[in-house]
Amino acid sequence: MGETVKKASLIIISMLIIVCTTLLAVERGIAAQGGNRVALVIGNSDYKSTPLSNPVNDATDMAAVLSKLGFEIIVKTNANRMEMLNGLDLFNQKLKRSGTGLFFYAGHGMQIGGSNYLIPVGAHIMRERDVEYEAVNAARVLAAMEDSGSSVNIVILDACRDNPFKSSFRSGSRGLSVMQASRGSFISYATSPGSVAADGEGRNGIYTKNILRHITNPELAVEEVFRNVRKDVYESTGGAQLPWDSSSLMGKFYLASSGVAIDAPSAGEDKRVSVRLTEEASAGFSSGNTYTNSLGMTFVYIEPGSFMMGSPSSESGRDKDETLHRVTLTRGYWMQTTEVTQAQWKAVMGSNPSNFKGDSLPVEKVSWDDIQDFIRKLNQRMDKITYSLPTEAQWEYAARAGSSSRFCFGDSDSQLGSYAWYDGNSGSKTHPVGQKSPNAWGLYDMHGNVWEWSQDWYGDYPSGSVSDPTGPSSGTLRVLRGGSWFNFARICRSAGRMRLTPDYRYLIIGFRLVASPGR
User: Is 256 helix (H, G, I), strand (E, B) or coil?
Assistant: First the structure.
């Protein structure tokens, strides 16, 4: 009898092992096996006036790698506009039978009026108004992918070389502008919006070279691949080039393995976001992961860590209330990548108190008390997500993004204009959020544009080390951080502080939010 029980137990254990192994394989493979993979790869080098060395090589090498990763490849090199559009039409047709679409472009690109354009070989562009008719709007690529109904769409744009026609253009727009990733999409740029990428001196561009280096790693999900790419490009260019991405993927997706379990699309955007927050934030995901809620607020996950808060006595422009002390944040959090816009405020409050009007401008003339009402209403409409103002420590840790200098990029006032709207370049007004270069963690306008309220009461910093500080338990003044369009450069330092009564409103004051899972 005992021997029979023993054998039965062994059989049951063996069956459990088989079931668990099978489930793991299904979890890793469900996305890829749910449909084919199709990639449209375009590389344009032979421009008449401003030829590029690497894009054709980039496209050829990318196509070869993607083919090995199971993609059906459509390749276009040195393509004119009609060839690019024909490739896009074929891509759309094939995507309708597929689960995953990937678009890669290397070549000249530019932004005109906030729209991004990919420049064909042979384009006849003499003035800005020619671009719409001679180039291919990148939004057309996104539309083709969304129209196909594919479950995962990946867009990679190595198209941030400087505008080759800028000498004949009135505007001075550099690089590309931000495009929002629709549900189930991932968009990656060779450098941050508004900045310019290098073509590279070897066979491949710097950005594409690093993609090729990481994309075949079966242990890395796509967002992890591009986080590594971002780090390597940033370091290899001495901080001059910072790749950027936008993601609304609903789970991990692996390019180099048999796939990953991707959450099925839910009926409502808010529900999708709450699932992502509760599962991914609690899992301690690395910095660089982003999500966007139904109001268009994009957040990036900030890992726990320690830093020196305040400023050393030697820092130029420092104030006496910036006592340098070590702070440890033991929990990660989701920080809004931009200041809250007027469109987002109106969507919740139904009104717009701002002096400078514009949906993409930061909301201003809002008091700390006003924001508490906004947060209360926002939390009521978002399931399982808690929004709040950042603490002072959370704000400065995120603003520094690993730096210990006066600004996130270094100590020099002369470079501030690349990252901030301040007295030296603002023209005495606010500007649309996200137009300047972000810091190393993907956060925009942490310096300048508008002052940002924090959660804390104002008080003196401690002299010793602290963990998860939240400021004094009571007070009469609340803290604001970051400086504004009105202020001198020194006021916009990472350590700079201002304090005001909670009911104070002015046209230099706005805010951004942090998000946490649960209630």
Answer: coil
